[in-house]
Structure to design on (373 residues):
């Protein structure tokens, strides 16, 4: 089988070992005579798969007992509505950080449920390069800017399209809003490094980047957030209902949960999230150093805010984009095209991407540039 390196932003590359194990178990899971896809979600085999996945996820993220883990559906975009449906009971507004495509989308959806107070916003930068304007930094939230009556403060921990990442969660006490719950969309950096789960009321995201196949949504939620739903919150989206029904109020995405469980075990075998974080740091460093050292490639994100998971870069000559992509493809470097809203390239280097894949990309980038010098 051809070795390819898949830089897709999601659905993304999965660890080879996980896919191999899934292939081995495809027709007969642990002597059951069934594929996981064919099992009742209420049967003992699947219950074991689900429980182990929940336990391993908790272990990896060091989720404190104050917080519950829910598996849902509807993706992170679904959560843009599900969070307000669950938290906006009796509140008029929530606060938001706006610094990229996904946080902008979250704010737009929220407008159906209340007043969105944007407390920090990154201005798109258009510089002398002539390249398209981009979001390039994590904006500072001014202390005192979050209204005491806000239902929550929402931020997107890693803007997947723009390649901008919070290194740390906003410090709500320092911002004078210790009582305001903190909500994070961590779709594209969950499990990439240790996170301060306790600082958050909710951390949610889609699984299809760093966890497993599409179709599964994770929600890590502090217990007191389970009972704040509006009366019109649909039962299937009620955090309380989902929790009370052990993430099975409706039929869960069983196969996605099974693969997620295998990924969690794989991560543990790699040394867990702290070990992964070190590898991720080195992978990103190599790629950013290559970009910064080149005359052809450019990444305009503020260095301290650069994403360790999604590395967008432009070619100074737009006309070379198509050739770059086609030659990359010939070298088995796949899905490098940037999001249509920003153009250029984007290399997503989630946990499953080994250093070897990044080295192959860097090697190609250097050759491509040299041949055009
Ligand atoms: C940060 C972020 N939020 C939200 C989404 C949308 O997620 P979904 O398609 O799972 O709803 C994505 C990516 O797809 C994302 O990267």
């Amino acid at each position: 089988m051809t070795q390819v390196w898949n830089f897709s932003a999601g659905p993304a590359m999965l660890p080879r070992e996980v896919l191999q194990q899934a292939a081995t178990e495809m027709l007969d899971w642990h002597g059951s005579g069934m594929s996981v896809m064919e099992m009742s979600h209420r049967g003992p085999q699947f219950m074991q798969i689900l429980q182990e996945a929940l336990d391993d996820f908790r272990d990896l993220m060091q989720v404190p007992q104050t917080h519950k883990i829910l598996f849902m559906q509807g993706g992170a975009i679904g959560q843009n509505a599900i969070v307000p449906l669950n938290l906006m009971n009796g509140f008029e507004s929530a606060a938001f950080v706006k610094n990229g495509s996904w946080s902008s989308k979250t704010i737009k959806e929220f407008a159906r449920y209340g007043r969105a107070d944007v407390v920090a916003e990154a201005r798109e930068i258009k510089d002398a390069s002539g390249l398209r304007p981009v979001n390039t930094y994590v904006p500072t939230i001014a202390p005192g800017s979050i209204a005491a009556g806000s239902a929550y403060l929402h931020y997107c921990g890693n803007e997947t399209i723009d390649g901008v990442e919070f290194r740390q969660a906003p410090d709500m006490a320092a911002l004078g809003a210790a009582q305001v719950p903190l909500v994070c969309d961590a779709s594209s950096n969950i499990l990439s490094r240790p996170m301060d789960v306790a600082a958050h009321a909710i951390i949610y995201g889609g699984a299809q980047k760093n966890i497993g196949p599409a179709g599964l949504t994770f929600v890590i939620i502090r217990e007191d957030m389970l009972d704040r739903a509006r009366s019109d919150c649909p039962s299937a989206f009620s955090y309380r209902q989902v929790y009370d029904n052990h993430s099975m109020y409706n039929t869960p995405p069983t196969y996605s949960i099974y693969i997620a469980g295998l990924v969690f075990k794989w991560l543990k075998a790699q040394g867990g999230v702290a070990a992964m974080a070190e590898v991720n740091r080195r992978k990103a460093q190599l790629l950013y150093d290559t970009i910064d050292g080149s005359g052809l490639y450019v990444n305009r994100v503020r260095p301290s805010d650069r994403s360790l998971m999604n590395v967008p870069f432009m070619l100074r000559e737009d006309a070379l984009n198509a050739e770059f992509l086609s030659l990359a493809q010939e070298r088995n470097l796949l899905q490098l095209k940037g999001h249509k809203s920003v153009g250029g390239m984007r290399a997503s280097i989630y946990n499953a991407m080994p250093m070897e894949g990044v080295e192959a990309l860097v090697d190609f980038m250097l050759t491509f540039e040299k041949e055009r010098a």
User: Anything to note?
Assistant: The chain has two domains: 25-269, 272-371.
